[in-house]
Automatic annotation (TrEMBL):
HTH lacI-type domain residues: 2-56
Superkingdom of the source species: Bacteria
GO molecular function, one term: transcription cis-regulatory region binding
Lineage, opening ranks: Bacteria, Pseudomonadati, Pseudomonadota, Alphaproteobacteria, Caulobacterales
Cell division keyword on record: no
Entry keyword RNA-binding: no
Protein name: Ribose operon repressor
InterPro entries from the UniProt entry: HTH_LacI, LacI/GalR-like_sensor, Lambda_DNA-bd_dom_sf, Peripla_BP_I
Length: 337
């Protein structure tokens, strides 16, 4: 299926320019407009009529519910979604949301007053079954980002958390680490489970015994819990030479706990996080981490909403996988001898 991004690549312009050619052609220079129109013809691209009607109608076609706007993970997605919507010529309405009593009435007010039909649900809201049931009742459309469980009614955009975690551990193996501690995420979210499974897979593939139970400490993706978990690991009679944290906030907490003990990072302890949240580049030393493909996932969300029926071509909602990358910075080094 040809998308606005395919047209933009062939024409050598931004997706936002393609959107302007479709919706506000008089604002685009004639030579650029001709270039985009030639690309659309070559690719046999036809704009989605319902999506275009929403863009032209003055209503905000997309809605984003945020439960924890200060989370580094969610803030990165917020920025990426804003960028993807801007590129596609869409507006987006953002609503602070929680699952306290009265949530359904607040949601209805947001959808009705903002004339929002399409929603984007991030964790943990993407796993809140009553919310999704309410949306189905309203015949609202939604795309789920990184849900814990597959939902046949809503398409989802995900990355391979297990493969990413395995890549982290293999990177530490290459640096000579074998005694690796792990601080997991919230036990109710599948990402925490998948990242631990990836750790185990790396050990199994290398023919090494899995980490001892005292090297696996429960966390909840929060900084304070990360401090407690790091203290537990660093207080072991034989502490780990590296710690893989389930997210960057937890990894930053590990760095704080290590510095408090006078440990050198990465000389005496290597630390790796996950997400590439803003804090990963802000702490010292900067964190080696897994970069989630925030912008690619956000663009895939916009495409899924623009071509809604295509998400169900197999009879059930599609799941779209996106690629991660390992960002090597200064917090991981060779294992101490």
């Amino acid at each position: 299926m040809t998308t606005i991004y395919d047209v933009s690549r062939l024409a050598g312009v931004s997706a936002k320019t393609v959107s302007r050619v479709l919706n506000e052609p008089d604002r685009v220079r004639p030579e650029t407009r001709a270039q985009v129109q030639a690309a659309m013809k070559a690719l046999d691209y036809t704009p989605n009529p319902s999506a275009r009607q929403l863009r032209l109608g003055g209503a905000s076609s997309l809605g984003l519910l945020l439960e924890d706007p200060v989370s580094g993970y969610l803030s990165r997605f917020h920025h990426a979604l804003l960028t993807a919507c801007m590129e596609a010529g869409k507006h987006i309405s953002v609503e602070l949301f929680d699952m306290q009593p009265g949530w359904a009435e607040r949601l209805d007010r947001f959808l009705d007053e903002g004339r929002v039909r399409d929603l984007i649900l991030l964790p943990p809201l993407c796993d809140f079954a009553p919310l999704k049931a309410h949306l189905r009742q309203r015949e609202a459309r939604a795309v789920l980002i990184a849900p814990s469980v597959f939902d046949p009614h809503f398409p989802s955009v995900v990355m391979d958390d297990r493969a990413a975690a395995r890549e982290v551990i293999e990177h530490l193996f290459a640096l000579g680490h074998r005694r690796i501690g792990h601080i997991s995420g919230h036990p109710d979210h599948s990402a925490a489970i998948l990242r631990r499974q990836g750790l185990f897979e790396a050990y199994d593939a290398a023919g090494l015994p899995r980490p001892e139970p005292d090297l696996l400490v429960a966390g909840d993706f929060q900084f304070r819990k990360g401090i407690e978990a790091a203290e537990a690991l660093l207080s072991l009679p034989q502490p780990p030479t590296a710690i893989f944290a389930a997210n960057d906030e937890t990894a930053a907490a590990v760095s704080v706990a290590a510095h408090k003990r006078g440990l050198s990072i990465p000389g005496e302890l290597s630390v790796i996080g996950f997400d590439d949240a803003p804090i990963a580049a802000a702490v010292w030393p900067a964190l080696t981490t897994i970069a989630q493909p925030y912008l690619d996932m956000s663009r895939r969300v916009v495409q899924a909403l623009d071509n809604w029926e295509a998400n169900f071509s197999s009879g059930t909602a599609a799941t779209y996988m996106t690629a991660h990358s390992l960002i090597v910075r200064d917090s991981a080094g060779k294992a101490p001898k």
